Amino acid sequence: MDIKETVIETHQGGIKIVQYNRPHKKNAIDPTMYLRLTSIFNETANDDSISVMVLTGTGDFYSSGNDFSVATDMTNGLSVLKEYINAFIMFPKILVAIVNGPAIGIAATTLALCDLVYASENSYFYTPFTKLGIVAEGCSTFTFPRLIGDRKATEMLLCNHRMSAKEALECGFINDIYKPEELQSKVWDKITEVSRLPSVSVAATKKLLRDTVRQELLKANDIEIQELNNIWVLKSKL
Q1: What is the pLDDT of residues 188-209, one digit of tens each?
Q2: Which GO MF terms are attached to this record (predicted)?
Q3: Looking only at Cα atoms, what is the longest distance across the chain?
Q4: Of 78, 138, 167, 233, which sits with the fewest C-beta atoms within 10 Å of its C-beta?
């Protein structure tokens, strides 16, 4: 499948919509998609006509995370992953996730790097890193304790707890939940309203909010990627 088809990019006024579009793979993200998505982040960051970017998925899943079925050079793969996560950290515009179904792995961890997250009632959030024999990524070792507390973060990242949409709302991981058939229509009114706010004011406020933690996020990403590399090196020797 062409990369242009696996990542759909559209515009609606000052809003850019980016869709993970591999429904047959539950929108799993492969290396070429990471590269394209990172490029979209960087292009949009410098596009004065865009004030809001929306991430969502096609079909029943938001995204099942990293596509482990695709063979890749691990060193290069981790470098691509690091740049993808850094793109979230450095993004200066409002970043909204419309979670239309389950979000797993990197798809779940990067939600904590978004500004607003709206989810379908049938979505869930699952980070089975220790079950897979790897370590947490997406800055989640920093963002999860800060966002949902140490206990819940431990359940998610260490014990592979699958968090429901209701639970995610209760602990502050997401902003709101909707019935699947109402998600898109009800959320878009809010997104359109945000997109019409004065862009200079919005950008300055986001900068103030993010500047306090940006260096810590970049550091967390560095450390997590290094630990992932250490794990893969150990596995390669077994």
Answers
A1: 999 999 999 999 999 999 999 9
A2: delta(3)-delta(2)-enoyl-CoA isomerase activity
A3: 56
A4: 233
